Amino acid sequence: MERTPPSGFEASDEATLNVAREAAGPDASASLLERLRDLKRKDDENEVESTAARTRWLESVDMLMRAVRAWMLPAVQEGLARLDMATVHVDQDDVGAYDAPALKIALPGARIVWVRPVGTLRVGAQGIVDVVCGSSRALLVLNRAGVWKIRSAGPASTLVLLDGHTFARALGELIL
Length: 176
Hints:
Distance between the termini: 81 Å
Shape: elongated
């Protein structure tokens, strides 16, 4: 069977390819193909795992944002806070790039607090969400057991279970 050289190849290139094919033999080609198939299979498996982890993370972040909105509802009803849903793009993450829900909290005194995901699969955590006001920062951490915890902005703060009370205390420290 006559082979047509790929476009851009000279006749001498085709001769070189034929010599290389003959020197490598059919076993080398089959071995290379098998290795490439294995690499592709692993890439596909990793993509499936990343997609599943990203989906779980985004569901957790969505539930967190719902909880924060519920905790802030009394302040919103009194006109002391305004909540605006937002979306942030997370570019550098172990599960690939994605858009995630975020929350902008406008408070009296022109204070703006952002609640926004940072990323997944951090050391000891499934993911981290920043709570930022100016240069102050608190962390919301989804631990490996799937439990949200919070670390306030203070230098001596530790991770504690996240609930309405601990969120309010951390928010109070952020806006001082």
